[in-house]
């Protein structure tokens, strides 16, 4: 789901949102475990346009450093008594913002930087380079932080969230080279945005969670965790639904969100979604959306919408093979944490009601992530995604299909790195753009974990029939995404 017209887009990068659905690895007794590595950045130099060869050389150099940093994983020698060893993992000696400031237990701060340096050496309306960066500050407050869920009092169930996001660099790169959608999910109007101010009650050992305040549709709805592995905005987003007025991050709107996990009482928030999955309901008032976006002077490039949005989603994670994926990977006597998202089926739908012209814009969406028994790497996933926004005058891209493959540990000695391949096809609305034919995107990227804080992700995007008009050459875009989280 994107925000408004095909360009400029108003979708947000999901990577700056917490992804609580990723599978946590369990550690066997006395077996060294490699903990999961968060995928996130380094503050880049401010480069807006530059020659392609120097920055491509920089990308190759940094990626080479990443591949050499960890070294090969050596198999543990069998022994009658297991020896106590340090887990084989990149050094986690970079401080967090919370530890630097020595904050009390009830306060958690996080700073995330995601920087994209890219260019198109082939195709497009023009050939150029670009840099854009997203910096996000998260502040969370709760007396329940650090306490076992079973010991929570009523006050411990409640938490407050504040999020500010700053976009820097040059936006509109995709539009300038002729693609219908941004090449990167960080491409938004430059400036400071308020991207969340909410209060939430977590059920703990119960089955119902509640959230209210100012927040976005995603990542709570539509956006599956597997999509976080990609750079292009048609993947790392909300399945490219493009109904005018949707509050896709960084846009926010007043809303309420309910989570219900029937049959899951007593298992705690850290377990799966329960025997019958999780139901989510969300409702948003869209009228103040543009005013909130321009709170700190940003020009959001989106028209006002007088109306409301309602959406329902069902998620189920007890799919075939999911039980075995709760255990770490065993390879050569070592225990290696799984960094790929767990299998997940996600289905939903909703509608946006515009009170100005009394129209309803319905939409359906779904994703399926499954374990892939392939001989490559240590762990693999296949996924497919589909969104259908119905042919209405407010939906420029009513049908979107995507699919992909992810593999952990493809390169020997790099068990925590991830290779990802994705393909997407956007169909334009024949009622409003009869002359346009579908635009397709292929992405190949590799996430190299330097340590528990820094990740480098070189990527390649190939856009076929950019803009849908058959009048612009196919775009080949290359780049490097740097992700850092304190």
Features:
486 residues; mainly beta; Porin; 19 strands; 37% strand; disordered N terminus
What would your notes on this structure say?
The chain has a single domain, classed as Porin (Beta Barrel), CATH 2.40.160.180. It has four helices and 19 strands. The protein has helices spanning 52-70, 97-101, 173-177, 289-293; strands at residues 33-34, 107-122, 129-141, 158-169, 191-201, 208-215, 253-260, 278-285, 307-316, 329-331, 334-336, 344-354, 359-371, 379-388, 399-408, 418-427, 439-449, 454-464, 475-485. The longest helix has 19 residues, at 52-70.
User: Any idea what the radius of gyration is?
Assistant: 22 Å
What's the architecture in CATH terms?
Beta Barrel
SSE ordering: EHHEEEHEEEEHEEEEEEEEEEE
CATH C-level name = Mainly Beta
Q: Quick check: average pLDDT?
A: 81
Number of helices: 4
Number of domains: 1
> What is the CATH superfamily classification?
Carbohydrate-selective porin OprB
Based on Cα principal axes, name the global outline: globular
Strand content: 35-45%
As for the CATH topology, it is Porin
- Biggest sheet descriptor: 16 strands, antiparallel, barrel
Low-pLDDT runs: 1-87
Query: What's the count of strands?
Result: 19
- Widest β-sheet, arrangement of strands: 2-3-4-5-6-7-8-9-12-13-14-15-16-17-18-19
Helix coverage percent of residues? under 10%
Quote the distance from N terminus to C terminus.
29 Å
Overall SS class = mainly beta
């Amino acid at each position: 789901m994107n925000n408004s017209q095909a360009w400029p887009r108003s979708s947000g990068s999901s990577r700056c949102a917490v992804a609580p659905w990723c599978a946590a690895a369990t550690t066997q007794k006395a077996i060294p475990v490699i903990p999961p590595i968060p995928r996130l950045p380094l503050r880049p130099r401010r480069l807006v346009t530059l020659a392609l060869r120097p920055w491509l050389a920089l990308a190759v150099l940094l990626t080479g450093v990443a591949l050499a940093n960890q070294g090969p994983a050596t198999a543990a020698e069998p022994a009658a008594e297991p020896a106590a060893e340090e887990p084989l993992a990149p050094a986690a000696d970079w401080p967090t913002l919370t530890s630097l400031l020595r904050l009390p237990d009830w306060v958690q701060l996080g700073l995330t930087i995601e920087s994209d340096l890219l260019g198109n050496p082939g195709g497009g309306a023009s050939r150029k380079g670009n840099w854009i960066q997203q910096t996000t500050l998260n502040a969370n407050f709760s007396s329940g932080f650090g306490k076992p869920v079973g010991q929570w009092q009523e006050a411990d169930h409640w938490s407050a969230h504040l999020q500010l996001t700053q976009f820097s660099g040059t936006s509109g790169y995709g539009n300038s080279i002729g693609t219908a959608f941004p090449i990167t999910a960080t491409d938004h109007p430059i400036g400071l945005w308020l991207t969340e101010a909410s209060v939430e009650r977590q059920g703990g050992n119960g089955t119902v969670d509640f959230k209210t305040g100012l927040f976005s549709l995603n990542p709570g709805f539509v956006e599956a965790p597997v999509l976080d592995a990609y750079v292009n905005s048609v993947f790392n987003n909300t399945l490219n639904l493009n109904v005018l007025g949707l509050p896709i991050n960084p846009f926010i709107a007043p809303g309420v969100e309910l989570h219900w996990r029937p049959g899951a009482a007593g298992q705690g928030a850290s377990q799966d979604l329960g025997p019958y999955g999780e139901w989510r309901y969300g409702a948003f008032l869209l009228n103040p959306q543009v005013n909130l976006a321009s709170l700190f002077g940003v020009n959001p490039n989106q028209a006002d919408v007088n109306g409301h949005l309602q959406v329902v989603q069902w998620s189920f994670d007890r799919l075939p093979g999911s039980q075995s994926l709760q255990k770490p990977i065993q390879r050569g006597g070592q225990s290696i944490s799984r960094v790929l998202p767990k299998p997940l089926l996600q289905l939903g739908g909703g509608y946006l009601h515009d009170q100005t012209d009394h129209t309803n814009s319905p939409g359906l969406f779904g994703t399926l992530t499954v374990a892939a028994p392939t001989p490559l790497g240590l762990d693999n996933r296949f996924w497919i995604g589909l969104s259908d926004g119905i042919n209405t005058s407010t939906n420029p891209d009513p049908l979107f299909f995507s699919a992909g493959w992810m593999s952990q540990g493809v390169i020997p000695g790099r068990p925590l790195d991830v290779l990802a391949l994705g393909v997407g096809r956007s169909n334009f609305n024949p009622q409003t753009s009869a002359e346009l034919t579908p635009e397709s995107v292929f992405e190949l990227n590799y996430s190299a974990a330097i340590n528990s804080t820094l990740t480098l992700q070189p990527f390649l995007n190939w856009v076929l029939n950019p803009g849908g008009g058959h009048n612009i050459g196919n775009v080949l875009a290359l780049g490097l995404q740097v992700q850092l989280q304190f």
